[in-house]
Amino acid sequence: MARQALVEHRPWLLAAIAAATLYYFVSDWQIGGLWLILLKGAGCLFLANYALARHGGGDARLLALVMALAALGDMLIELDFLWGGAAFFASHLAAMSLYLRNLRADPAPSQKGLAVALLVATPLVSWLVSGSSSIALYALALGGMAACAWMSRFPRYRVGMGAILFVVSDWLIFARFGPLAGSALPDMLIWPTYFAGQILIATGVIQTLRATR
C-alpha cells in the first residue's frame, strides 16, 4: 500500500529516487557522456517538480528553485568544476533565503551553537582537506546553507540532517584533492550522501509547508 501511495500521490519523488539510483549504478558504464549528464541532473529536477506539485506557495517555489539550480550544478560539474560550483553556490544562496524566511522561534542555545559550528567548520575543513582558497570561499555559502537549515523551523532531523549530509558529500569531493586522492571511498559515498541529503531537505520542507498551510 505504501508503494502504491508513493506512485499515485508522489510520482515526482519516486522518479527522483529512481533516477538517482539508476545514475549511481550506471555512472561507470559506457552509455554516452551526454545521457549520463542528463540522468545525473534528472534527480534534483524531479525534486523541483515534486515541490511544485505538492505545494503551491512561494516557499515551495523557492525550494523548487533550490533543486533546479542543484540539478544544473549536477550537470555542469561534469563539464567544468568551476561552473558547476557556481550553480551550487547560487543554489545555496536560494536555500539560505528559504530558511531565513522560516526561522525557528526561540531556538535553544545548543541549536545556535551547532549552527555557528557549521558556519565556521564547513569552510575551514573544506580548506584543510583541499588546500584551495576558492573552495573555502564556496564552502562559506555551503556552511551558511547548513547553518540556516539547522536554525529554520523545518524538522532538524530531516532538513537539518539533509544539509549536513550535503556538507559531508562536498567534503568528500574536496578530499579527493588532498588526503583521499586516489581512494575509492569518495566515489562510493559522494552521490549517496548528497542525494540522500537532497531527499531529506525536499521532503522535510514540503511536509512542514503542507502541515501549516
TrEMBL record:
<feature type="transmembrane region" description="Helical">
    <location>
        <begin position="83"/>
        <end position="100"/>
    </location>
</feature>
<keyword id="KW-0812">Transmembrane</keyword>
<feature type="transmembrane region" description="Helical">
    <location>
        <begin position="60"/>
        <end position="77"/>
    </location>
</feature>
<feature type="transmembrane region" description="Helical">
    <location>
        <begin position="12"/>
        <end position="27"/>
    </location>
</feature>
<feature type="transmembrane region" description="Helical">
    <location>
        <begin position="189"/>
        <end position="209"/>
    </location>
</feature>
<keyword id="KW-1133">Transmembrane helix</keyword>
<feature type="transmembrane region" description="Helical">
    <location>
        <begin position="159"/>
        <end position="177"/>
    </location>
</feature>
<feature type="transmembrane region" description="Helical">
    <location>
        <begin position="135"/>
        <end position="152"/>
    </location>
</feature>
<dbReference type="InterPro" id="IPR012506">
    <property type="entry name" value="TMEM86B-like"/>
</dbReference>
<feature type="transmembrane region" description="Helical">
    <location>
        <begin position="33"/>
        <end position="53"/>
    </location>
</feature>
<feature type="transmembrane region" description="Helical">
    <location>
        <begin position="112"/>
        <end position="129"/>
    </location>
</feature>
<protein>
    <submittedName>
        <fullName>Lysoplasmalogenase</fullName>
    </submittedName>
</protein>
<dbReference type="Pfam" id="PF07947">
    <property type="entry name" value="YhhN"/>
</dbReference>
<comment type="similarity">
    <text>Belongs to the TMEM86 family.</text>
</comment>
<keyword id="KW-0472">Membrane</keyword>
